[in-house]
């Protein structure tokens, strides 16, 4: 009996040892996968904790590293992207117009001494740039001007920018072929009612007093086209007043008035100004300040670049959506830009399409807003909360897309969860 008991105990100890060994190996495998961020499990793409499902009432999310989906939900559902769409607009402009593209503004003079200014959609025609332009005109021999004549005919828009509101907020400024300072104006109204420019590079203009009527004392940045019966005419007036003040400040006499009129056929060109910034150098301002005006100047320029002037919304849609269809294979029922800023609720993308865009945009990732290892463009409309960009770890840039079309904004919580799930190295 004792020998039998000893045999049974020996067999038990051997089986127990094998069990312990297998358990140890299993634990080591689990620890190894956890240390690597479990890419083997995440490769299925649709694996994510239940917490993620509770945060997504209607939307999609993806986190991708080296073409392996770490997190993925609803990759192919068409969604409203809000301002994350600006990444698509920037990429289209880089490919259609080219990173070295410069925007032209042309100047003409007639025998009567009128100065014609013809715009071609320069999105960065700001006060500092205009000061330099006037200096160049003076060097070309311009000493006096009768009328300042503004020509906006390079754009023939079928209505205002899709999605803009009727507010005086700068993000609702109208697009025009000849527009200065993003069609916004920065004014200061004193307690006694006096109105002056709130920035040193911009002189005080007559238009400022009209826009300040009814405003409380303080600093106000306004959309100059808000409430205008003819936004193009108001935009032209603003440009004309700014050019007149700058011309006078540099010793060039201006005797006449400001008016709108196309450049007469056959009038000889006096000089053409090329924007001091190349297109690629403008993109950080577009993305980091989420500038709707710049986005749609790019969008319209793409249409004119492919289909000729005058620029129209239809040409822009044809050019930009055609580019994405040809280069990426995106069908319009899942990827469509009605305009380039993300304001329109007819824009749509899928999370999968945005991932593809981010792969192509990778060389320009540094143009995006950067904070704490994140290179992300946000997007927000009522009921739309989105992020698109990259999570940096060392030399790695993991692609991230979060697009929520829901009442509750859980965007920040989804981002934190994705950061927790990403591979540790």
In short:
With 425 residues, the chain is an alpha+beta fold. The protein is built from twelve helices and 16 strands. It has two domains: 40-97 and 281-421, 3-Layer(aba) Sandwich (Beta-lactamase); 104-275, D-tyrosyl-trna(Tyr) Deacylase, Chain: A (3-Layer(bba) Sandwich).
Would you give an account of this structure?
The chain folds into 2 domains: 40-97 and 281-421, DD-peptidase/beta-lactamase superfamily (Beta-lactamase); 104-275, 3-Layer(bba) Sandwich (D-tyrosyl-trna(Tyr) Deacylase, Chain: A), CATH 3.50.80. Helix 4 packs across helix 10 (313-328) and helix 5 packs across helix 7 (231-249). The protein has helices at residues 2-35, 39-42, 50-55, 85-96, 127-139, 206-212, 231-249, 279-288, 292-307, 313-328, 351-361, 411-421; strands spanning 59-65, 68-73, 104-109, 115-119, 144-145, 148-151, 184-189, 195-197, 218-223, 253-254, 258-260, 269-274, 370-371, 374-381, 384-393, 396-404. Strand 14 and strand 15 (384-393) form a beta hairpin. It starts with a helix and ends with a helix. The protein is built from 12 helices and 16 strands. With 425 residues, it is of the alpha+beta class. Helices cover 37% and strands 20% of the residues. The strands form 4 sheets. It has a 6-stranded antiparallel β-sheet with strand order 2-1-16-15-14-13, with helices on both faces. The longest helix is centred in the N-terminal third of the chain and has 34 residues, at 2-35.
């Amino acid at each position: 009996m004792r020998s039998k008991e000893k045999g049974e105990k020996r067999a038990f100890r051997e089986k127990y040892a094998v069990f312990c060994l297998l358990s140890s190996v299993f634990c080591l495998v689990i620890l190894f996968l956890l240390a690597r961020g479990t890419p083997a499990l995440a490769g299925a793409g649709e694996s994510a904790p239940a917490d993620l499902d509770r945060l997504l009432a209607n939307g999609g999310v993806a986190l991708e590293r080296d073409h392996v989906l770490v997190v993925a939900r609803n990759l192919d559902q068409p969604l409203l992207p809000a301002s994350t769409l600006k990444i698509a607009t920037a990429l289209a402009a880089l490919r259609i117009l080219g990173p070295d593209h410069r925007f032209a503004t042309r100047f003409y003079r007639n025998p009567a001494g009128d100065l014609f200014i013809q715009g071609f959609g320069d999105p960065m025609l700001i006060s500092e740039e205009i000061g330099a332009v006037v200096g160049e005109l003076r060097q070309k021999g311009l000493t006096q001007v009768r009328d300042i004549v503004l020509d906006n005919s390079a754009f023939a828009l079928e209505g205002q920018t899709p999605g803009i509101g009727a507010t005086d907020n700068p993000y609702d400024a109208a697009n025009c072929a000849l527009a200065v300072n993003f069609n916004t104006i920065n004014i200061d109204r004193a307690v006694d009612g006096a109105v002056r420019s709130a920035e040193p590079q911009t002189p005080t203009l007559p238009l400022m007093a009209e826009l300040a009527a009814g405003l409380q004392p303080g600093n106000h940045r306004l959309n100059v086209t808000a409430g205008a019966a003819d936004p193009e005419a108001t935009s032209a007036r603003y440009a004309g007043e700014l050019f007149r003040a700058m011309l006078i400040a540099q010793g060039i006499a201006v005797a006449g008035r400001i008016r709108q009129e196309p450049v007469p056929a056959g009038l000889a060109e006096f000089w053409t100004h090329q924007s001091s910034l190349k297109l690629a150098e403008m993109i950080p301002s577009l993305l980091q300040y989420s500038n709707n005006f710049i986005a749609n100047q790019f969008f319209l320029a793409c249409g004119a670049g492919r289909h000729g002037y005058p620029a129209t919304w239809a040409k822009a849609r044809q050019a930009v959506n055609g580019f994405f269809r040809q280069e990426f294979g995106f069908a319009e029922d899942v990827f469509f830009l009605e305009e380039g800023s993300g304001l329109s609720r007819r824009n749509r993308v899928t999370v999968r399409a945005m991932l593809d865009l981010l792969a192509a945009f990778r060389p320009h990732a540094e143009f995006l807003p950067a904070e704490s290892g994140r290179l992300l463009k946000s997007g927000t409309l009522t009921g739309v909360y989105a992020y698109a960009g990259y999570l940096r770890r060392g030399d790695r840039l993991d692609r991230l897309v979060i697009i929520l079309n829901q009442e509750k904004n859980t965007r920040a919580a989804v981002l934190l969860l994705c950061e927790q799930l990403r591979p540790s190295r």
